[in-house]
Amino acid sequence: MRIAAVAPLVTPLAEAQLGGAQAFVADLARALQARGHEVTLYCAEGSSVSGVRLRTVPVPAAVARALVMPGGLAADAV
Fold first, then answer.
1. DSSP tag of 73
2. For a Cys staple, 17 with which of 23, 54, 56, 59, CB 3.0–4.6 Å?
3. What radius of gyration do the chain's Cα atoms show?
4. What residues pair up with 71 in beta bridges, in sequence order?
5. End-to-end alpha-carbon separation of the chain, Å?
6. 10 Å Cβ neighbour count for 73?
7. pTM
8. Residues 7-22: pLDDT tens digits?
9. Rounded to whole angstroms, how far apart are CA atoms 52 and 62?
């Protein structure tokens, strides 16, 4: 089965995640891949997850800050 998963674009995924949504989606993608599925993980630029096909998305710094701190995005920053 071909599966696409989308990670939160707040921060890049890394091999050792402490928890949260990023760790969950990385672990899920690896587990599905290990079961023989074709997994593509869409994630923030700079991410690294071994054994899974990544499609990275550039996230401007102003947008990333706004995702972490709602209301922090100025109208002219986008």
1. -
2. 23
3. 14
4. none
5. 37
6. 16
7. 0.72
8. 988 788 887 766 788 8
9. 28
